[in-house]
Amino acid sequence: MMLRLPMFLLLTGGWLAAQAAPTLGPAREAEQRLTAAKDDVKPGRRYEVTEARSHWYNFFIRPAKDTPAAQFAYAEGLRTNGSLRSAGKEYRLLTVFWPQAPEAPKAQLAYARALDARQKWQDAFDEYTYLIEHYPGTFPYTEILQRMFEIAETVMVTRKGKFLFLPGFKAPDRAIPLFEKILEHGPEWDKAPECQFLIGRAHEFGYAYELAIAAYLTTLVRYPNSPFAEQAAYHRALCLEHLAASEPNNEATLDEAWTAMHQYAARYPQSEHLPAITTLRDDLQRRRAQLAYHRARYYDTIAKKPKAALLEYRDFVRLFPQSDWTAEAQKRIEQLAPLVARENHDQTKP
Prior knowledge:
Layout: H1 7-24, H2 27-40, H3 68-80, H4 84-97, H5 104-117, H6 121-134, H7 141-157, E1 159-160, E2 169-170, H8 176-185, H9 192-205, H10 209-222, H11 228-246, H12 251-267, H13 274-302, H14 306-319, H15 326-348
Antiparallel strand pairs: 1-2
Helix pairs in contact: 3-4, 4-5, 5-6, 6-7, 7-8, 8-9, 9-10, 9-11, 10-11, 11-12, 12-13, 13-14, 14-15
């Protein structure tokens, strides 16, 4: 059975075919384009037509000029006259249709900067990234990384969803892939430690404490001697304390948070954060002691297991000799020890 297509699809298909046909071009048009391109390159170097940078509008929009040099000069003229949007479009078309031309790296950089000047932060960042990945060695590398870093910082603090009188909301997590991309292309850059640290801060601002802890730990491991190592250790300890507060009966989380506080106090004794860290550490120590004492009391009074209770009380006294419950635990040890000894003696009788 023959399928019948709607008339508008047939018309659309015919129109697309008509528009696509000039892209392929007859032999004469191709010859003229090659001739113009050859006139534009330096003597002794033949211009080669390469595979175009694919984009959906390749079939609909063509460069304003016939050669890369003329196209770049045309785009520069638009930029000089203040037409950043039009100039950006022409820079982009140059990189699409002549990606290997000598003017392509300059056009790519100019396109990224045009987007940057229009405050199209994400698009500008993406085009700077394309520049780094496809045209290495043709631009001031450190300068571009610095600008990408500044854009990532801007994205991190810019509110999202502003409408009329509504202020919008913070979405610092949008900056995380940007900082990660900077680290990918500049792992040894001077600001790489700060990038890694800010990944942790973005996660922390978004209350993703587990991810923040991992990012801060990466900062400590990869850049232990950087100025951001101390800040990473401090914020990692705070994030662990948040987790411990949200899970008060999780002994492992309490122990890890207390250890982070203890290590920070020992490693940075001159830190301005030391008083706050000391207070939090002592509070965590008290909570750890209380949890351990309650566990021993459970075996003692609820489970009715004197041997297990005796072991727990003894561990408690050893780990927390100065706690509020140490005296009571010691008293129960003295009471349980003879009882457990008699039970052991009875069990050994034939």
